[in-house]
Design a protein that fits this description.
Layout lengths: L1 H14 L31 H13 L12 H4 L1 H15 L11 H13 L17 H15 L1
Helix pairs in contact: 1-6, 2-4, 5-6
């Protein structure tokens, strides 16, 4: 739907720094030091997500081993995009919250993408906001402005 595309693009812009990086930027977060740190256009993160995506690749007859070579999600654009589509549709099913253009929908989608759950504290953030919330709102506003 148009709403789902809007939210998907807003998340990509936030997760990749405006499409400037397909890999998680080093930070103080433990996830940025992990073997299975954020990679791809939606920054697939965690061994569970990598394994689930690897299993999906096998069912689609893709001959890539991202468990042994997780950097494929940075160096192979097809996998960078496919991992995001898989996570959006299957891994997190974030698209189910992309029902309108409201900040409430944006927050839910952002929490699914960045935190894994709409009920998550997002790494202990006392306000319960996903990382980069201000940037996510700014990206969404830019997209809305382009639609008008």
């Amino acid at each position: 739907s148009p709403e789902q595309r809007f939210h998907f693009y807003a998340q990509i812009a936030a997760e990749t720094g405006g499409l400037t990086s397909l890999g998680e930027i080093p930070s103080g977060y433990a996830s940025s030091k992990s073997t299975y740190k954020g990679r791809g256009i939606l920054q697939l993160t965690g061994s569970g997500n990598y394994q689930a995506f690897q299993d999906y690749l096998i069912t689609k007859n893709y001959n890539f081993d991202i468990m042994k070579n997780p950097n494929l999600l940075v160096t192979n654009m097809e996998l960078a995009v496919l991992s995001a589509l898989w996570y959006w549709d299957i891994g997190s099913n974030a698209k189910r919250y992309a029902t309108d253009y409201s900040d409430d929908a944006l927050l839910k989608v952002s929490k699914m993408v960045n935190c894994g759950s709409i009920n998550s504290e997002c790494g202990g953030n006392p306000k319960g906001l996903p990382n980069g919330w201000k940037e996510r709102k700014k990206n969404a506003k830019r997209l809305k402005d382009c639609m008008n």
